[in-house]
Design goal:
Strand order of the largest sheet: 1-2-5-3-4
CATH class: Alpha Beta
Order of helices and strands: HEEHEHEHHEHHHHHHHH
Number of domains: 1
CATH superfamily: Protein tyrosine phosphatase superfamily
Structural class: alpha/beta
Number of helices: 13
Distance between the termini: 8 Å
Number of strands: 5
Low-confidence stretches: 1-7
CATH architecture: Alpha-Beta Complex
Helix content: 40-55%
Length: 264
């Protein structure tokens, strides 16, 4: 890819209805390559795209979308890419907290910000240890996408999606510090105006007693969250490479296949 072509790409797509959609291209790999622009994207929900947004996405020829949202989430905010979209949408539902405690069953007037932070740490450990079947399927779909764009998302595009992005970049041999930089970019683009109220309404009925500050730890993108996932991997596996191969099916040959397709 020429320098002029590279300059046509940007990390965050300028979409009005999806402020946290990003291209995973342009990241240097440990062996001197660079992830390809315009092939792999991470995002939040895609239910509020404007006509201009849809036209922008069409240029990437999205072929596969992995939606990590639960059924109640995607039925509330149905993905709408426009009439000319050719993407196959695969629902790979992840319900954060299934193996710890359910946020939906929590009485938020009794929860502190510190408790919410601790719960988010547990959630990210759970993503690494209890959702391997889902992320394995994501990689299968990624490997099957021979041309066009591949996009994965959840509601906000930060936790379920953030760990998915970390796994893909790790499989492409992007260094851990760069993976963390990509993860933390969400803090710049999320939450947009009104997102705090959206989350409060998602998990509980708004009332005068609702303390919205409880949701800040839930909404934040913090190093501790992604580190919790990688720490869980390192506690149970010899290395991230071993985890990728044993739990997600990404052996050396498949990693080379991914790199041949998504690294230049």
């Amino acid at each position: 890819m020429s320098a002029d072509q590279t300059n046509n790409f940007q990390r965050r797509l300028d979409l009005e209805g999806a402020p946290n959609i990003r291209d995973l291209g342009g990241y240097a790999t440990a062996d001197g390559g660079t992830t390809r622009w315009g092939r792999i994207f991470r995002a939040g929900r895609l239910s509020a795209l404007t006509p201009s947004d849809k036209a922008t996405l069409q240029q990437f020829n999205l072929r596969v979308i992995c939606d990590f949202r639960r059924e109640d989430e995607y039925l509330k905010d149905v993905t709408d890419l426009g009439d000319f979209a050719n993407a196959a949408i695969h629902n790979l539902a992840i319900s954060p907290g299934n193996h710890t405690r359910s946020i939906a069953e929590t009485e938020f007037t009794q929860v502190s910000g510190e408790q919410m932070f601790e719960w988010m740490v547990l959630i990210n450990r759970e993503l690494a240890l209890k959702q391997t079947h889902t992320y394995r399927r994501m990689f299968e779909l990624l490997l099957d996408t021979k041309d066009g764009g591949f996009l994965f998302h959840c509601s906000a595009g930060k936790d379920r999606t953030g760990f998915a992005a970390a796994l893909i970049l790790a499989a492409l041999d992007v260094p851990r510090e760069t993976i963390m930089e990509d993860y933390l970019l969400t803090a710049q683009y999320y939450p947009p105006k009104g997102e705090l109220e959206y989350l409060a309404g998602k998990y509980m009925d708004n009332s005068p007693e609702t303390d919205l500050s409880v949701f800040h730890a839930l909404m934040d993108t913090r190093e501790e969250y992604l580190n919790a996932a990688f720490n869980a991997i390192e506690e149970h596996y010899d290395s991230t490479d071993h985890y990728l191969e044993q739990e997600l099916g990404i052996n050396r040959a498949l990693r080379q296949k991914l790199k041949a397709r998504y690294v230049e």
